[in-house]
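Hi there, hope your week has been kind to you so far. Would you mind checking whether the C-alpha cells look sensible for this chain? I owe you a coffee for this, so here goes:
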Amino acid sequence: MSQAEIFEPAIAPGTSTRIDPRKAGFEINKLTKRLRRLTGQAVVDYGMIEDGDLVMVCLSGGKDSYTMLDMLMSLRRNAPIRFELLAVNLDQKQPGFPGHVLPSYLRTLDVPFEILEEDTYSIVKATTPEGKITCPICSRLRRGILYSHAVRRGANKIALGHHLDDVVGTLFLNLFHGGRLKAMPPKLKSDDGRNVVIRPLYYCREADIGRYSQAKAHPIIPCNLCGSQDNLQRQKTGEMLREWDRLYPGRVENVARALANVTPSHLGDPALFDFIGLRADARLIPIAPVG
C-alpha cells in the first residue's frame, strides 16, 4: 500500500438525511475493511506484532480502544502468525463509574479479559491543585499500573488506542507549548526497558473510528476526570484539526505523512545532524577574475 492510500482523507461524517439501510450497511462494511487494512498496514510497517506475542490490549471504555480491540481480533483470526490478546481495563474508582459495562461486553467476545481495580481517582484529586488539569498525574499513575501488570502477566506488547489525530495533535501541542518537534511514535520501549508499547491505530482517523464505533454500538464509558474539564489544550488542538478537515481536506494527512518523511539536515538539531563538521567535499580553487 502506498503512503497516498494510507493517508487518504477520512470519510466525512454523515448528515441527518435519511439513508437507505442497504447503502448504509455497504458503507459501514467498506469502513470496517478500511480500518482493518490500515491497522494491519501499521502493524506490518513498524513490526508491532510478532509470532508468539501476548498483546495486552488496554481498554478505557472509549471508542478508540473498542475499535482497536475489534481490529486486533480480526487480525488475530487472519494473520499468518500466531499471537494472543489479553484485554485489560483499569477501574480507577471514579465516582459513578459503571463497573459492570466492560465485563458484560467483553464476555460476549472471544477474548480473555481482566479488570484491575486501583483507586487512583483519590490520589489524582488530592494531588492536583484547584483549577489544574488532572491528565498528567492520572496518565502517569495509569501507565505505571498497566505497565507493571503487563510484566506480571508476561505480555511483551502493550497496545494503546491512539490514532492519527492523536499523533498529529501531540505534534502541535509539543510545538506550540513545549518548543519541541515531537509526536507519538507507533512503537516505543518504556524507560525501564521492560515494556514495548504499540499503537495499532496509528494510520486511522478519529472520524472513521467514531463512525465505526457508533455503527457497532460500543458501550461507551465517559471519563469524568479529564473529559469534563473545559479549555484543555488538547481539545483546542483537536478543534483545529477538525477545522482543517472542513476547510483544507488532506492537510492533517499531509502532516502525518511528514512524520515519516523527515530530513534532519533541513532542521536545526545538532544531535541529529553534524552541522559543525559539515564541510565542502573539496578545497575550492578561486576563479581568476575575467579581464
About this structure: The radius of gyration is 22 Å.
